[in-house]
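ok so I'm stuck.
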Amino acid sequence: MEIAVIGGGNGCYAAAADLSEQGHSVRLWRRDAESLKPAQEIGGLTLKDFRGERFIALHLMTADLAAAVDGARLIVIPLPAPTQDAVARQIAPHLQDGQVVYMPPGTFGTYLMARQLKESGNTAQVSFAESGTLPWLARKHGPATVAITTRATRLPSGVFPACRAEAAYDVIGQAFPAVERLQDGLDGALMNAGPIIHPPLIMMNAGPLEHFDHWDIHNEGTQPSIRRVTTALDNERIAVREALGYGAPHFPLSDHYDPDGEEWMYGNAAHERLVDSGDWREHIELASHRYLREDIACGLAFLVSVADWAGVPCPVARGLLAVASAVVGEDLRQTGRTLENLGLNGLSREDMKSMLDEGLL
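replied:
not stuck anymore, here's the structure
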């Protein structure tokens, strides 16, 4: 299948290498042409995983977005949520009938992309989908090398608009057999694990993160008290999902930490593999890191706004959002990705469901 991968981050390189090795024809687009040169010069990427290290050739590596997108059946955008507005504006004029845009994960990026497509004047019938997590735990080990610690074994994903879900899942499933169907795009957004796992880890590890050059929030940073906060936060997410009629499985984050429990998105013992890799012992600049700018300013702010809209109490989410706002000196409930800032808070539940099902008319 012809697949375009958009971006140059850890997940983007993992996507390009992994999907190419599966036999798909992958076009990798990166805005920064200079940073793309090391991969272009060798014709692909070096992939490292449990099977060892090997070279993976890519069909195309380009800074020409139109060339990357043209004719691709699936467009994978594993970029942080704060980049979605800019990417949507760039890609909207190039999208074509029948294409599927997949954002793993999306933070309701499905709606953002669909809105930008409409505002651009492009009338192509495009489906947008988002998952509960990135399909890979991955880190780049060099300008043309990516290491994949583990791959998702379950990928709960929602499609916007839901009326085109059947065809979209057929396309996504060819690249990601682990995909599991959700009701719609909001269902997918409320499955996002990042806004649950990362806010307690970085806010409650703020001292060591700022003191030490490198700190592993998933190893010594994951302590029982922090785990209890994570569970309480996740319970609020699940309460919001249930209030909106989204049923189980909810993929509670506690399953990620329990190697003998229900299989989570990355399978059993994924947390142990993540810690053992050593790749997450890193420097995290709190104010600018994606754990704050994506998972709190976008993801957690979105969760709080949906909880408020649905009338569901969320004291832990609200508290973490307030602490993060104090850290960065910015009221993230006002400036973050919220239903208010998306212009959706005035919708009734019936109107929201109609939009999720039928799209932007």
